[in-house]
Amino acid sequence: MTPVLDAEGAHLAALRRLTDFRDRRVLELGCGDGRLTLGIADEAAHVLAFDPDAEAVERARHSLPAELADGVTYRVASGKEIEIKPHSFDLVVFSWSL
Fold first, then answer.
1. Is the pTM of this model over 0.85?
2. What is the rounded CA–CA span in Å between residue 28 and residue 37?
3. Pick the CATH number of 24-94 from 1.10.260.40, 2.60.40.3550, 3.40.50.150, 3.20.20.300
4. Closest to 36 measured CA to CA, from 54, 21, 24
5. What's the pLDDT score for residue 4?
6. CA–CA separation, 8 and 44 (whole Å)
7. What share of the chain is helix, strand, coil (3-state, %, to 5)?
């Protein structure tokens, strides 16, 4: 059995209490397997989600529903190496779990 982190959706709910993702360009640092990306992308104009763990990003790509595919870009990268054009995002989300 694969453990499910945050099955109740408390993490995404906490983010939604802090900000409104609607029609925003969101940069997600440390997306892992995309557990938060899908909820953010459901409202955002576009999400660029990246993580240095190539296997996790591949899992995220495979779990991305077709209806969200145009609004999400996944990349394998670290925060030190990814090139981001200044002012190209409205919000930045950083998620980290052990």
1. yes
2. 8
3. 3.40.50.150
4. 21
5. 61
6. 21
7. 30, 20, 50
